[in-house]
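re: ur question from earlier - yeah i can do the single chain one, its not a big deal. heres the input i used so u can compare w yours
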Amino acid sequence: MVRGRQVRFDHDAINAYLGSPFHLPPDETLCAFQKHKARGNWD
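and the output i got, formated as tokens:
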């Protein structure tokens, strides 16, 4: 909470703030960065 207001960090809230919606391809649930991170290659 910031100054008594809830701050959301889900992808819909971030896209609304940035004004650039991010859409995954229809058959994928993870983007390339998330796949890379999920493999443990995050550093």
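The CA atoms of residues 14 and 20 lie 9 Å apart. not sure if urs matches, ping me
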